[in-house]
Amino acid sequence: MLGIRPELVIGLVIAESVYADHGAELTVAALTNGTHHPGSLHYQGAAADLRTHDIAPEVVQHILASLRTALGDDFDVVLEDAGTPNEHIHVEFQPKQPISP
User: Fold this and answer.
1) How confident is the model at residue 99 (pLDDT cuts 50, 70, 90)?
2) 1 has pLDDT over 50
3) CB within 8 A of 15, min separation 6: which ones?
4) Which of 7, 36, 56, 92 shows a CA-CA span of 20 to 30 A to 98?
5) What residue spans of 1-101 are helical by DSSP H?
6) b vs e for 18-37, b when ≥16 Cβ sit within 10 Å of the residue's Cβ?
7) How far apart are CA 40 and CA 21, in angstroms?
8) Separation CA 25–CA 54 (nearest Å)
9) Could you report the per-residue pLDDT of 43-95, keeping only the tens digit for each?
């Protein structure tokens, strides 16, 4: 995979705004790079990991809720590895309905 899906680019622009609204700076820790589980949407350019370790835990929870609302049902937003040095927000574009051509 050489790039990321346009929907994910839009999602990251929205995520940057959500982070800023909560006084945090967005850092994308992984896109198609890194090692992920087999079949991961990272390898399809449809997932991103967003850094949280420099953000207070209560703010991370507000960012999570805001991202879920702002990105809608076609994105999954999950806090992974909470409380560890690898904690991050995993965002993936995974539409629940087929996309029309």
Assistant:
1) low
2) no
3) 26, 48, 50, 67, 70, 71, 91
4) 36
5) 6-21, 57-71
6) bbeeeebebebbbbbeeeee
7) 29
8) 9
9) 777 899 999 989 999 999 999 999 999 999 999 999 999 999 999 999 999 88
